[in-house]
Amino acid sequence: MPTDHASAETRVLDLLAPGGLLDVEQIARQAHLTGRAARTAVTTLARRGWIASPKGAARWNITTLGLKAVR
Predict the structure, then answer these.
(1) Could you give the strand order of the β-sheet that contains 22-23, starting from the edge strand earlier in sequence?
(2) CA 4 – CA 58 distance, rounded (Å)
(3) If 0-12 CB within 10 Å is exposed, 13-18 middle and 19+ buried, where does residue 4 land?
(4) Is the pTM of this model over 0.70?
(5) Rounded to whole angstroms, how far apart are CA atoms 63 and 59?
(6) CB pairs under 8 A, 24+ apart, for 58-64?
(7) pLDDT one-digit tens code per residue, 3-51
(8) Which end of the chain is more exposed for a tag (fewer CB within 10 A), N or C?
C-alpha cells in the first residue's frame, strides 16, 4: 500500500478516470489503500476540484479538472 499522499491521490484519480461513482470504502478497496489513506486522498482531491460528490451523495466521481490532471 502506498505510504505517500501523492501515490494515493494518483491511485484514486486513476480509479475514477473511467467514470462512475464510488464511495470511499469502494475506493479504498479497489485502489488497495487503507481507509485513512483513501479518505485523505479524497479530501485533498475534492479541495483541488479534481473529484466531486453530487449534492447529498457519499459517492465520488472525477471532474474535468481531474481528467486533465490524469492525462
Answers:
(1) 22-23, 59-62, 51-52
(2) 24
(3) exposed
(4) yes
(5) 13
(6) 58/23, 58/24, 59/21, 59/22, 59/23, 60/16, 60/21, 60/22, 60/23, 60/24, 60/27, 61/16, 61/19, 61/20, 61/21, 61/22, 62/13, 62/16, 62/17, 62/19
(7) 577 899 999 999 999 998 999 999 999 999 999 999 999 999 999 999 9
(8) C
